[in-house]
Amino acid sequence: MSVPPVIWILTIVLILGLLAFDYVFHVRKAHIPTIGEAALWTGIYQGIALLFGITVFVVGGPTMGTEFFAGWVTELALSVDNLFVFLIILGAFAVPRQDQQKVLLFGIAFAIIARGGMIAIGAVAIDRLSFAFYIFGAFLLYTAVKMIIDEVSGDADEDEEQKDGIFVRLVKKVLPASDEFDGDKLFTIENGKRVLTPMLLVMVAIGGTDLLFALDSIPAIFGLTQTTFIVFTATAFSLLGLRQMFFLIDGLLDRLVYLSYGLSIILAFIGVKLVLHALHENELPFINGGEPLNVPEVTTGLSLSVIIVTLAVTVLISLVSPKGRAQAAVNNAHREAVAYQEMTYESFESRRDEMYERMLEHERIIEGLPAKFQDLVVSERNVTELLSDAHAVHAQRVRFNERGERSDEQPDGLLVTREDGTVATDPNGNVITVAEEERVRATKKAKRLEREQARAERVS
Question: Which residues form a coiled coil (predicted)?
Fold first, then answer.
């Protein structure tokens, strides 16, 4: 179905307007979104996508409307999976929590532009190359198999880290770069020279990763619809609310341990659908003499049903599975150990005891985990040290309470707890040892003084 140019223009203006609104009112001033803020705006952006889909359903007809929702749900699921890798990249660069919004918004804007270009290329290929559906279908089947193999072997995260590292290494070879952030600046002065900051490098990594993700997502949505307008809008609206969703489900991401399996099933299903469609419209001379084959075609309604059911089952199994519960126990023990240590004696004793008992409950779960889940404990940075410090703090509080005394003194030998009772963290919020934090602070202070001196010399 042909879409009038005026509809294209209005839609692009709407998307650009939403991006501009997001930057001006949420991202320009660096801050850490609260759960309430993230939930509110995630709901608003997904609501806008739903309203747009309903409009397409009413104006364009049931077929276009169903195709939009099938494409939007598929792209949204793939985008959520991408958040895992974004989390790895942001952690690897130790991006300050308050600046992560800006990096994510850049990634979203870049993804919409890059995927828009790839959609245009894909539309031309489908229109002019009769065998394009074979290529798209084969690629999706290959991707689905590779996702399962990587998930089983545990190489998925390593592969993604290597991919984003390629783009960063290429940039570093050409341009000088600093190892330290300078606020949210993209460039800074170091040793009297203008250099890139990690903020720009992480944007390059996110952008490069977006391009690689598009190789999966674009053929997938073309397997659901060949209407370019639907392909573009479903992709764009799946990306628009991704920044808010990142902060909303940050703590839930690790629990979706089987999401990759669900996505691989969806990609394989769409790959088969594309191959069947290609056979139905076959023009390749070495297949059935260049004549179409009488094979069944998968309807858009069936596609939407398979996608929704697969995602629902995958998420449900992830949340109730032993592996998902193991990850939840590790995350909860980490959070509760931090909260317990940072509690002061002005807080209620009963509340402290309640928190401590809950922490012990999750610690017992961790200790009873099978060997195959122990890597979850190792990957949760310094959770063992946190629990050890929490026990030391609790023992000292009990001793003071037994003597009828109250004290905010910390016991000796704490690894990750500062003298004031708070927990040492790096710029990304990861728990680190106090000694490591002091080294990081000393290095940053020296580099900051060096930059200030360089700026003063340039002015004079």
Answer: 432-459
